């Protein structure tokens, strides 16, 4: 790396298309300096040469390419280039819009500094004009801009027969009514002769689920019964605009958690970064045994305004690859979408106003003329704003990347079927099975090429490359496990006995790593988790102590498993779970390994500072046997111990002891009181691991896992602890 000051750095995605037309993504480490943007295959050390660089000066521009889809995953794409050398560019992407916006802001600030510096020297850069195509008094947003130089180079020029090509530069597609503009009175005055932007007038119809429901006031006296009035729901959600936008754009199973009218959704065609054509099945509960289900095919356009708000617009559209589906009535969206606007925070929490508008004709013979059917279904769809509000108020899982499962067109199905015939013995495949096969392969297919950045020269498909990469990783893991000589466990002992029988009492045994799900190698892409598998360390003994005071630094006890391991040249990690009360209890787990792999996540944890350890030490609990209320209270959600309770780390030459003070948390103490009261009737599983946050740290591996069964309080002993040894490091 150069000596220039680093402005911003982190893992991002290299995104592009090969000559054969398929998109690719690679995880790369990007570094932005005061005059240079570069990326590396791995986090750079001193004097490492970057894979590619781009000199940053006042002629550089950041081009917003919007959302692109790669194997069902949405990425937000930015392209950075020099307008004098347009062929020299770096295209980067993020899995969430927040990270992309941070990079966009940082890069633009560096460009601005160069422009100001050059201007102060009396030498201004050439002016740069956008071809926004919005000259009717409208204020173009930053995400609507696209440079005139790059417009001709857009990588999706293969759809000349569609409605129009350049959405980013010209705003919404033709005939898509931007109802969010109706709030701008100046716009209505300036465009009085433009019927598409005539002002709507609304009246409050009702309040429902904390939402205000408005109905359009019509300027005409007569309207066909089958054509519903426009209605909109307005509510406040305690989340950022970006978090809400990502949920609104998703069409996978997570949508079912907040949109009760959603049954299934898929991508028909990606027109460009801001426009897509989608297929959507509605889940309506109005006499489902009599009324046929409804589906939709519509164009969706989105943009981000300069004030931080997001606009998502819907309009029904016919498409060759999305004809009528058997058993469904094709409804028609006259106008619809979301307007997501930031509000002032309250009590430190972000607040966002969400408007959801829908004007829809549900079609169908006879039923369309029953007004109660139209209104009931419309209210059910608009109620999704309340679903969004409750979703964010009831969950902390906000980091999931949105995904759109790909709906394959007829040509793709035919190609896939030919390929399937070569791979399988059967020669005939029905179209439905081909679709299922493609859906399954696309769900988690991510290409991570660490060998070459010559993207255009890669001729294998993404799925083949992924399979190959996973195979190499599996072989590597298998080799590591086979080459690991077993540790003689007979030399270790603890006062809590080991018993492998299913019905053993007052004992411990190893818990299978596959009982716990941890972050997979692809977690950064799809948030997927996999069974943990083999442990990194061996659990050799468990001690069960009691005393009138809290027992810290239990490794001091003469003859304990950690001291025995040290005598044999082994390294130990000791977890001391401290249970407070009138009598203090400690359950101590001794995990042993021959050596720590240098540069591994486990070695970083052992030798890191307390702040790093607290941010990474994770416990996954489970109660396979016990009362319902205890199982619900303990749950099975992973917990960062250092964030939940106080942890004291004691680093010795051959060990790391972690004293976990469960009594330091009111919540944990309350649950603990419940557990201790019925501990003899419980079987508890616990897995300890170091949380992996970066791609090169994945997949996660367990330090170890244990099952304790039907523990008796009376079996605990009072330990004899020696004074601290002088060679112990307390960190």
TrEMBL record:
InterPro entries, alphabetized: EDR2-like, EDR2_C, PH-like_dom_sf, PH_domain, START-like_dom_sf, START_lipid-bd_dom
GO cellular component: endoplasmic reticulum
Domain of life: Eukaryota
SMART domains according to UniProt: PH, START
Region (Disordered): 114-170, 415-435
Keyword Cell division found: no
Domain START intervals: 202-364
Name the record gives this protein: START domain-containing protein
Biological source species: Erythranthe guttata
């Amino acid at each position: 790396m150069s000596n220039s000051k680093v402005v911003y750095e982190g893992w991002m995605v290299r995104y592009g298309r090969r000559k054969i037309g398929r998109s690719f993504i690679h995880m790369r480490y990007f570094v932005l300096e005061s005059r240079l943007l570069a990326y590396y295959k791995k986090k750079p050390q001193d004097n490492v040469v970057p894979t590619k660089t781009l000199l940053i000066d006042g002629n550089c521009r950041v081009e917003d390419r919007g959302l692109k889809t790669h194997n069902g995953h949405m990425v937000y794409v930015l392209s950075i280039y020099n307008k004098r050398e347009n062929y020299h560019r770096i295209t980067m992407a993020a899995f969430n819009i927040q990270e992309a916006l941070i990079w966009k802001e940082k890069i633009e600030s560096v460009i601005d500094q160069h422009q100001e510096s050059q201007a102060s020297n009396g030498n201004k850069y050439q002016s740069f004009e956008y071809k926004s195509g919005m000259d009717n008094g409208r204020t173009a947003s930053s995400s609507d801009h696209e440079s005139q130089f790059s417009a001709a180079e857009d990588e999706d020029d293969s759809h000349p027969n569609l409605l129009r090509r350049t959405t980013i530069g010209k705003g919404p597609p033709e005939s898509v009514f931007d109802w969010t503009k109706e709030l701008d009175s100046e716009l209505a005055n300036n465009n009085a002769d433009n019927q598409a932007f005539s002002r709507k007038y609304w009246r409050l119809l009702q309040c429902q689920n904390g939402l205000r429901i408005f109905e359009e006031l019509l300027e005409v006296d007569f309207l066909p019964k089958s054509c519903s009035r426009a209605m909109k729901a307005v509510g406040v959600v305690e989340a950022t605009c970006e978090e809400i936008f990502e949920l609104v754009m998703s069409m996978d199973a997570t949508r079912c958690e907040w949109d009760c009218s959603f049954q299934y959704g898929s991508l028909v065609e990606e027109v460009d970064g801001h426009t897509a054509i989608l297929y959507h099945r509605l889940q309506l509960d109005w006499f489902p045994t009599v009324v046929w289900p409804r589906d939709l095919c519509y164009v969706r356009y989105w943009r981000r305004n300069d004030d931080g708000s997001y606009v998502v617009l819907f309009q029904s559209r016919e498409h060759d690859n999305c004809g009528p589906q058997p058993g469904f009535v094709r409804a028609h969206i006259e106008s619809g979408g979301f307007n997501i606007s930031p509000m002032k925070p309250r009590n430190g929490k972000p607040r966002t106003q969400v408007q959801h508008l829908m004007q829809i004709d549900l079609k169908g013979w006879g039923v369309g003329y029953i007004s109660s059917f139209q209104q009931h279904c419309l209210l059910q769809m608009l109620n999704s704003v309340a679903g969004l509000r409750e979703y964010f108020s009831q969950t902390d899982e906000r980091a999931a990347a949105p995904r759109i499962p790909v709906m394959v067109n007829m040509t793709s199905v035919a190609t896939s079927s030919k390929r399937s015939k070569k791979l399988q013995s059967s020669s005939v495949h029905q179209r439905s099975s081909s679709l299922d096969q493609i859906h399954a392969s696309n769900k988690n297919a991510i290409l991570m090429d660490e060998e070459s950045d010559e993207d255009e020269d890669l001729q294998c498909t993404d799925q083949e490359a992924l399979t190959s990469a996973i195979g190499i990783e599996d072989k590597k893991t298998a080799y590591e496990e086979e080459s690991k000589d077993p540790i003689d466990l007979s030399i270790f002992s603890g006062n809590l006995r080991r018993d492998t029988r299913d019905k053993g009492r007052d004992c411990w045994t190893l818990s299978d790593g596959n009982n716990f799900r941890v972050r997979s190698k692809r977690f950064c892409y799809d948030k997927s988790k996999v069974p943990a598998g083999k442990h990194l360390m061996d659990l050799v003994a468990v001690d069960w102590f009691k005393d009138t005071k809290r027992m810290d630094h239990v490794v001091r006890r003469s003859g304990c498993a950690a001291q025995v391991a040290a005598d044999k040249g082994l390294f130990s990690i000791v977890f001391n779970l401290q249970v407070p009360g009138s009598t203090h209890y400690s359950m101590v787990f001794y995990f042993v390994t021959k050596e720590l792999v240098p540069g591994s996540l486990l070695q970083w944890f052992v030798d890191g500072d307390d702040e790093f350890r607290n941010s990474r030490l994770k416990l996954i609990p489970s109660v396979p046997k016990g009362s319902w209320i205890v199982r619900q209270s303990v749950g099975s959600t992973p917990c960062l111990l250092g964030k939940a309770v106080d942890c004291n780390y004691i680093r010795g030459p051959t060990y790391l002891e972690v004293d976990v003070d469960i009594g330091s948390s009111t919540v944990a103490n309350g649950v603990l009181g419940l557990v201790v009261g019925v501990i003899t009737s419980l079987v508890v599983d616990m897995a300890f691991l170091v949380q992996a946050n970066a791609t090169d740290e994945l997949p996660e591996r367990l330090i170890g896992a244990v099952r304790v069964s039907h523990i008796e309080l009376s079996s605990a002993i009072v330990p004899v602890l020696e004074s601290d040894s002088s060679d112990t490091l307390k960190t």
